[in-house]
Amino acid sequence: MHRRHRRTLQLTALAAGTVLLATACNAAAKKDATTTSAGSSGKSFTLVTPDSVGENEFLKLAVTGIKDAAKQHDGTSKVYESTDTASQQQNVQAAVDAKPDVIVLVGFEFADIVAQQAEKNPKQQFLMVDACTTKTYKNVSCAVFREHEGVYLAGAEAGLLSRSGKVGAVDVLDTPQFRRYSDPFAAGAKKVAAKTETSTRFVGGQSPFDDSARAKEQANTLLSKGYDQVMAAAAAGNYGVFEAAKAKGAFAYGVDVNQCPSAPGTVVDNVIKRTDVAVEKGVESVLGGTTGTTVSYGLKEGGISLTGLEAGVDSSKCVIAQHKDVLTKVRALRDQIVSGELTVDDPAAK
Amino acid sequence: MFLDSDLLMSVLRALTPILLAALGGALCERAGVFNIGLEGLMLMGCFTAVTTSWFTGSPWLGVLAAAASSAAYSLILAVGAVTLRGDAVVLGVAMNLLAAGLTSFLLRTVFGVQGTFDDPSLAGLPLVGGFSPLTYLAWAAVVVTAVLLSRHVWGLRLRGVGEAPDAAATLGVSPARHKYAAVLLSGVLCGLAGAQLALGNVTLFSENMTAGRGWIAVVAVMLGRAMPLGVLLAALLFGIAEAVGFRLQGLGLPQQATDAAPYVVTLGALFLTTARRRGRTPRTTGSTRSTRSTDPSGVAT
Q1: CATH among 3.30.360.10, 1.20.1600.10, 3.40.50.2300, 3.40.50.720 for A34-145
Q2: Are B146 and B130 a contacting pair, CB within 8 Å?
Q3: Residue of A nearest to B216 (CA)
Q4: Interface contact B76, partner A, CB < 8 A
Q5: Among candidates B217, B49, B234, B245, which has minimal Cα distance to B132?
Q6: Digit-coded pLDDT (tens) for B16-28
Q7: Where is the composition biased (Low complexity) (chain B) (predicted)?
Q8: DSSP E strands: which ranges in A37-129?
Q9: Residue of chain B with shortest Cα separation from A214
Q10: Strands of A196-349, DSSP E
Q11: What is the separation, in whole angstroms, between the first and last Cα of chain A?
């Protein structure tokens, strides 16, 4: 009796496992190849994304970039959307098999896969955006961002807007790479208001990128001490930070894309990564024969910016749209950074 | 400087979801079903609460739906462990994995987004005296489960079923029925915990948003020896360790150190409680168990 039950259970588990596997394969096979055929020059570009593009602004920009590149070179572009690790690998393989002129990959997820493929296919050109392989390959070019420059400008806005003279940041983890989102924020605020008090809280915990409740509590510890401007660099936790700021009537700053619509009246501005610029310029330089190098994109190259400094700020739902005077000062700072007169310390370079 | 009202609020907010889930876990433990699927049950609650609140506009319906869906989800454990006599640990792990995958998948299909669903017009639970009503419910649940387990006939039978199912069965108490009830109740409580997290602590759903709270609840059950008051104290300990950890970051302690705080506290508490327990009962656990199971007085009534 007992044994029979155990058998049934094993069978059930096996069946469940098979179903799971089947769905996983199904999902992996789901690959959206949108082709924008236009030109006759024969130049072809393929973009492989780590996730489905959907409403992901960051990836949407990358798609815009690849389409623009195709238009400029009178060529064609394809987009392969991945949904998980397995489909990432399959999509890269499919892209390599099709032998386009350049394969563009967005995100650190692709570092290992690209390294393998670059070695196997020395004639295929790869462009990695927002990440790079650990070893350098002649046929892998990388485009990375100098986020700290944008964060510095956001910090300057916070310094100018703060009433309490206290600005803080909620960051994901205490690592040099993530400190790019908090240290320059403090530096920017101190640049425009020397007496500004600054503090950073790190979300940490078991899953620092997903834990919005924890990020909210971290923001609360800052807000309860009178901090009224908070940089939110906590991935999914950003929404928690926005909620906390909204409840206390304080202000927050978003990252990567325009996050103002998720809390209008609370989010002041965003440090945005122009993936489209990085993709377009990166493709350009690969076709021009410069390969195997890492190019960083900052304020100067237009790869990093603030929503407030871009066209369309008035319809962005960002608080900064009502502070034109602040924007004028921030523009002046940006020009100083672009001209090289002012350099922003990079925490990741220490 | 630590003991301000903000800290207290912060502790109580962090405590509520863990406490609700841990009480559910305690009921199962007492009925002899080791439930480590609390994390998955909670996550299902989070998703259902947000989805229902979004489509109906009522956070209250969200709470009810969360309780119902998690209870339904807990049937996997009930059927698997009680009826089919499967291993509860394996089932619990499977439930956690399935919940993480299922909610991510549903997030994509229902809302067409990845990672996080958040909208300014998503209705969260109202605050009563600074807390969501579920916070008060959680405290009431401690009292109710404590009374139920120690003073009520049903609670005594449940404990009997957990400690000596064969003896209970001979006395006409159905172990299966009581175990099912305990597991389903834990589903309801975890659903409430999820609703509290997704519509109370924050107002959004993000993938894997429970972020280990269910596991902390499992530890709280063990640390509190599955007694409602003990569970409350254990959960409170975690809440305080976490909230104080956040404050210590403000004083310049590195994040890595403050992250470790809840675990250091757990270990400390574990050492202290086991040391005390040993001092009190020199007999081995095996012999206590055998004396208990041959004594029918705790089961009948």
Answers
A1: 3.40.50.2300
A2: no
A3: A206
A4: no
A5: B49
A6: 999 999 999 999 9
A7: 282-294
A8: 44-49, 76-81, 102-106, 125-129
A9: B14
A10: 197-202, 229-233, 251-256, 267-273, 294-297, 304-306
A11: 66
Q: With beta carbons under 8 A apart, name residues in chain B contacting A243.
A: 202-204
| Higher-pLDDT residue of B293, A144 | A144
Residue B82, token pair as written in the block: 């009680």
The type of residue at B184 is L
Q: Could you tell me if B147 lies within 8 Å of chain A, comparing CB atoms?
A: no
Amino acid of residue A186: A
**Neighbour-count burial of A175, counting CB atoms closer than 10 A to its CB (0-12 exposed, 13-18 middle, 19+ buried):** middle
In chain B, the domains with their CATH numbers are 5-282 (1.10.3470.10)
> Do the chains contact at A217 and B94, CB–CB below 8 Å?
no
Q: Do A239 and B201 count as a contact with CB atoms less than 8 A apart?
A: no
Bridge partners, A279 (sequence order): none
pLDDT tens digit string along A161-195?
999 999 999 999 999 989 999 999 999 999 999 99
> Helix, strand or coil for residue B41?
helix
Nearest to B208 among A5, A210, A224 (CB): A210
Residues in chain B within 8 Å Cβ distance of A221? 6, 10, 246-247, 249-250
Q: Which of B116, B132, B196, B238 to mutate to test the interface with A (most CBs of A within 10 A)?
A: B116
Of A202, A224, A263, the CB nearest to B120: A263
Residues facing A126 on adjacent strands: A103, A140
Q: How far is A104 from chain B (nearest CA, A)?
A: 22
Q: A208 pLDDT band (50/70/90 cuts)? A: confident
Q: What is the pTM of this model?
A: 0.83
Band the pLDDT of A52: cuts 50, 70, 90. confident
Provide, as residue numbers in chain A, all residues whose Cβ is less than 8 Å from the Cβ of B211: 205-207, 210-211, 213-214
Comparing CB atoms, the residue among B202, B215, B246 nearest residue A221 is B246
**Token representation of residue A192:** 């425009």
Phi, psi of A17 (to 5 degrees): -60, -45
User: Alpha-carbon distance A313 to A346, whole Å?
Assistant: 27
What is the rounded average pLDDT for all residues in chain A? 87
Tokens at B6, concatenated = 């903000």
Instruction: Please provide the CATH number assigned to the domain covering A147-273+303-349.
Output: 3.40.50.2300
**Do residues A80 and A55 lie in contact, with contact meaning Cβ atoms separated by under 8 Å?**
no
- Identify residue A33 by its one-letter amino acid code: A
Beta-sheet pairing, A251-256 with A294-297: unpaired
Least confident range from A262-266, A328-332, B265-269: namely B265-269
As given in the structure block, the two tokens for residue A243 are 């909620």
Tell me the torsion sign for CA atoms A5, A11, A12, A14: positive
Is the pLDDT at A89 greater than 70, yes or no? yes
Where in chain A are all domains bearing CATH 3.40.50.2300? 34-145, 147-273+303-349
**Tokens 């700053």 belong to residue:** A253
